[in-house]
Design goal:
heterodimer, A: alpha+beta, 2 domains, two-stranded antiparallel ribbon, 15 helices, 56% helix, B: 263 residues, alpha/beta, 7-stranded mixed β-sheet
Chain lengths: 405, 263
Amino acid sequence: MRFLKNVQAAVQVLIALPGRTLILALPVAVSTALALSTLAVDRGLSDRAEAAARSFGLDVISIRSGTRVIAGQSSTVASLTDEDVAGLRNQLRETRAIEGTRIEDNVPVSSGGKHGVYRIFAVRPPWAGVRQFGADRGEFLSDNDVDSSARVAIIGQTVARELFSGQEPIGAQITINQVPFEVKGVLVPKGASPAEGDRDARIVIPITTFYDRLYRRLYLDQIVVQTADSSPEVLARVEASIKRIMRERHSIAEGQPDDFAVRLPDLIAEQSRGVSRSVVFLLLGLAILCASVAAAAIGLVFAQAVRARRTEIGVRRAMGATSGDILLQIWAEGLAVSILGGAAGFALGWAAAGWLAASRDLAFAFDLVVIAIPLALVLLSSAAGLMPARLAARVDPVTALRTTE
Amino acid sequence: MSGCECKPNAKRERDSAKPKAKGAAIKNMRWTMLIEAINIRKSYRDRRGETVSVLKDLSLQIARGEFVSLSGPSGCGKSTLLNVLGCLDHPDAGAYQFDGNDVLGWPERQRADLRNRRIGFIFQGFHLLPFLTVEGNIKLPHLYSRSPRSDSTNVEELLREVDLAGMARRYPGELSGGQQQRVAIARALALKADLILADEPTGNLDGDSAQSILDVFGRLVGQGKTVLLVTHDPAVARRASRHIRLEEGRIASETTPAKGATV
């Protein structure tokens, strides 16, 4: 009861001095909002990165052609071949599947007067199992399709939507780089990722058809290796073996750089985040700095206010307040400012996280940590009110009320 | 000479209906005393660190319903005495009973509760909280009251009592000095205090305002309240039923205005 009455007294003062209340609550709100939105977006990006890694395959290691810098220009080295795939299959242990892929970007595709440019993946049937990228409707590629270099295609959800506008694409004809193909199926939806772009804007065709009918290119663009399990130890061992075998196969001398790049699922996850962790830490540091400023402002302004409010404190003591009441009231004022700022900060942070996610193609999510850290910043600000509260409790009412005798 | 020597006069006035038996008379006399301060001593350290004695073995009794004025030169200990009697300050030595209770031995919370329920303070500078309305100021003691009935105080009734009806929503800054002091009186009465301690309540007021404040005090005494008023103004002091003059921390003289000095 007494506590509530002191809170009531604190609220009376805060309402009576709205300008001061808002100025003090502002840095609390900013720090809370900054911390909450940063952590929420980080949580969302982490979730998305994990989903991207899972979607790519937590047990899938990707080998891509490396880059070489010649005369200051970075260019991709056409270094991966079907022989590499065969060599890896022979020598690598702790794997379940190894598949080579040819990839061509920005390939013109049309159907029934509609046109688009998409990414072509030329693969063998086991690729669908490795990448968990099979047919959602219709059928995926068969061994027969590969053996016969069949002109069949499995199109992504985006391709289906853009070229067929809701009509059934299976069985329909499309032309890929002016070569006619029959749509055999529609791929499962995968969504977009910063690392791989719109994964539904893809068309999968037999790897033999790619060579025989579209691009007479022998080298591979990617080899995917599915490991026996997704434990970090197995992934690390397989990665080391891949590097050793590939360097041997490509006759790369000691001290020379690889002509290929190996990507583990965690690298894919990091690339899928879109915003680096260091940016998150920077923003979080800024939020903590802001909270420290808020705490310092509350401490200093209230300490100054205590000096200015000595007569008021004396009057309250004369009216029956104990030193404990005064401590509680002044601290409650700081606490109320912190709660007000914190509540505004949570609302702002929530809105900012939503806005960022919507406008910058980011994601956001809330969990206990996302809530706990901004809450700790609010508590830091409220604790700052304790020092001036103790100062106020020590004000001698007689001195405070003294007038000339 | 201590304030105890006022007892025979006051006693005569009060004892008209007393039982004859000596023991009963003493018991009844003690019962009717609201304040009994005996050999109160209080000293401070000044800025140079030297001890300054403000109250020197001062004794004083005030009966219920008395209107006592207190005057004396600056620094003679008037406000200090008020603070000690109001339980805001603690004497270095001496005994103090409020309504028969040895309040000096009470813990802070109990003394704060006594200030809240039974003592009303009125200051020369009014000391109203400028950010609260008249009603908020009057209800200020409620915040610190442990009595569940305290919230039932009728602010309008109190304002009528001090001739400020209809001003509950005003802020102190919108009122004249006299009006502010009357709000302070209403605040002192919010929890029906027995004792009003007024430290130069008319010091900042013009003649008419001061007169109206004194009229309010007169009415309060008529209702049975006890008033101890510090003043420099002899005219104000004469309105009291007893006038005490302090000099150098001691009672120098004591008069009942109608009868002249007793010391």
